[in-house]
Amino acid sequence: MQQSSDSERPVSWHQQFQQSKALEQALLNHVSDNIDELAYFVYDLNALKSHLHFLQNQDVVKLWYAVKANPLSRIIQTVDQASIQFDVASSGELQQVLNQGVDAKRILNTGPAKSRAQLAEFLAKGVNTFVAESPNQLKWLNELATEFSVKPEVLLRVQLQWPDGEKNPLGGNQVTPFGMSVEAWQKYHVSQFPQLNICGLHIFQWGNMLSNKKMYDLWQQMVEPLVTLSQSIGMTLKVLDLGGGLGIDYHEQGEQLDWQDIIADLAKVKKQANVEELWLELGRYAVANCGYYVTSVVDKKVNFDQQQLVLSAGINHLLRPGITEQPFPVRLLRPSMEVNANFDLHGPLCTSLDKLGCLPLPIDVDVDDRLLFGYVGAYGFTESMPFFLCHQTAAEYVFSGHELILVREAKPAQWYLA
Ligand SMILES: Cc1ncc(COP(=O)(O)O)c(C=O)c1O
Predict the structure, then answer these.
(1) Which of 283, 312, 310 is nearest to 40 (CA)?
(2) 384: CA distance to ligand 1 center in Å?
(3) Per-residue pLDDT, 3
């Protein structure tokens, strides 16, 4: 498989952007004749392709792409070309992946809200791999598998808890709907579900990990309780799925996971758990870096000594900063030699939630300037709130070869208003 050398690999989103002069030029020159295009996403498929090939250049872990991170057709096609498989969590995601010509046998179904009807739909469409998050899901799958005369591969999703205190690798013990505790699963035995091939465990209860050491400590501490659970319910543990959660340096503090170290650590986990296969479902770590978002400054003012910029769009296109402590990093699209100051970046919605962060920008940033946000390849367009206040939706472009290609045009509110 093709691999770019480590010395060539950009470390941050901005280094990557600077390495693609053709993309920079395309964005600087870009003027849309669509008056509704006030903002757009662009995904650099050249960079994505090379990143995915880099991730695939190992034989320790089987990679699945968590489609929720970015379900755009061209992203799915690029992931497919890298021979990565797909983790889908809804009927909509399933159909979108199938529509790109992906074989249903390369699709895994996760998510806590699998109804009997949804499971039936997935089986009817040929999906054969499921993560069961409850006894009902197991029961329904077993019944449906009999009806469909199939024997799907099933992983049980486990939630672990540790005693409170410093040794707790998660830092807390939040109870979520994602899977169940060891004790809850121990009430069942795989022999109760003869139509299912229950062959693995799935665990994922951390987010945006940026330290190799912390990640490894966490994975490693999970092995013993998981192996014990598998033995107590009569399962031959063949697969361990460690979900996603590999982090992105949204705060630009120079923290990055080293993929080669992850692979070395996973090789140890695989040995320790004695499993045939380790799986990861990557969302942001696969696609965040390939995406940029461009919008413009509508107003600039100083308010209570605070520099404020009001933008054409905010959390209506990029919700994440409004609901997490993680702003997407930003740069001025045009060059500037001025020093930076911190600006509060507000969107157009009538809520103080509509803030994309307080971030450094050159002091000469002004009305009509375009801002470039990074790491928006994941959890951008589809994790937003486009309908509030009836603003225009964002456009989506891909950059492939040397071409900026429109995939989805910006639309006025009239297309969804009834
Ligand atoms: C089951 C599952 N797998 C994988 C992911 C991807 O997570 P990330 O984007 O942090 O890699 C998610 C995200 O919510 C998830 O729910």
Answers:
(1) 312
(2) 17
(3) 43
